[in-house]
Amino acid sequence: MNEQIQLMIDWIEDNLKNQFSLDELSNYMGYSPYYCSFKFHQVTGISIRRYILLRRLYLSTEDLANNRKIIDVAFDYDYSSQEAYSRAFKTVFGINPREYQLNKLPVQSIVKLTINKDGEWCRMNVSRKIEVEQLQNEKSELFDKYVLNILNGQVMYEEFKDNRLMGDSDYAPFNEAMCVNATTKQVFDKEFINTRASGHHESVENYIKKVIVPLDNLFNKEYKCIVLWFGEDMFCQMNLLTILSYLEQSGYEGKVFLNCFKEDEFKVNQTELKLGHYYSVYKEVLVNHNKPSNELLPVMYQAIDIYLDMLKEDNAVVKYISKNKDLATSELINRLFALFPTVGYGDLQYIELINKT
């Protein structure tokens, strides 16, 4: 079955710039349209139509970045008009193609699905050191002692700190999973700590030791610049939103840079952020579970959509788990990692979700 799904994926990828129908795909595969649709969704957790939509839009960002005419890009990816393409683009990325073309803002990567012969989903690893060295050549001022690097998670923090990847600057990890459990309006105050500790089924003392103490530099030192190292998946982006909210609450006045990256490639997209509306977004999204009213970076806009969808009882991940309960937990988790990379959950979050489903 995995080989058949890979054949479907390969055929779709070869025809993303062509007009085609499900009937043509099913004729190529030698199965009915219903069978192709059902099996594709069963194995990948996403519909064929949705996969095509997301892949075309993501690939189109490369054309926009190369300053191709928007109408030409629209026609290349089988849109009937520039307006139809722009509507679809804004629905997925939160901004229109012209805004993206002018600002080259980070978006979530939507890569081709690839299955190897053992039925496992392929990933790649690229050295972080090489990417950071390239960044140093471009932004050497971010490597001095008046800069704080906040990194998403303990593992990344230890790698950066132990290897002094950012030179003389300081480091701090954010060891949270803000995409799960309740939170409070004020970030890092007593109520926040009690609420988050309770949600994680931890003692307040353990939570403080794990989450608050490692952020001591953020709370007690002054920096001219803060660099935020957070991945593009939903898990990382909700953590990022929390840190940005705190920076606004605390009245931070220095520069803020986001170094956004895709976990398996670690290709950094650096953007200077302007504080001013993240606290309101934090309250709208993480506290009240509503869509944000402010315009955001596409990568955060996409992540918020995923976060709000994951709050639904019938979200795509839950549906996939329900259909594959016969799998061993370890195999099911590996599939979830591969099929839903933009969610960004870790083992603990998936195990809890599996146990609830």
From TrEMBL:
Cross-referenced InterPro entries, in alphabetical order?
Answer: Homeodomain-like_sf, HTH_AraC, MarA-like
- Pfam families per record: HTH_18
* Gene Ontology terms, MF aspect: DNA-binding transcription factor activity; sequence-specific DNA binding
Q: Kindly give the Gene3D superfamilies that the UniProt entry links to this protein.
A: Homeodomain-like
Q: What does the UniProt keyword field contain?
A: DNA-binding, Transcription, Transcription regulation
Domain (HTH araC/xylS-type) spans: 6-103
Q: Which PANTHER family does UniProt cross-reference here? A: ARAC-FAMILY TRANSCRIPTIONAL REGULATOR (PTHR47504:SF6), RIGHT ORIGIN-BINDING PROTEIN (PTHR47504)
Its recorded name reads Helix-turn-helix transcriptional regulator
- What is the protein's species of origin? Peribacillus simplex
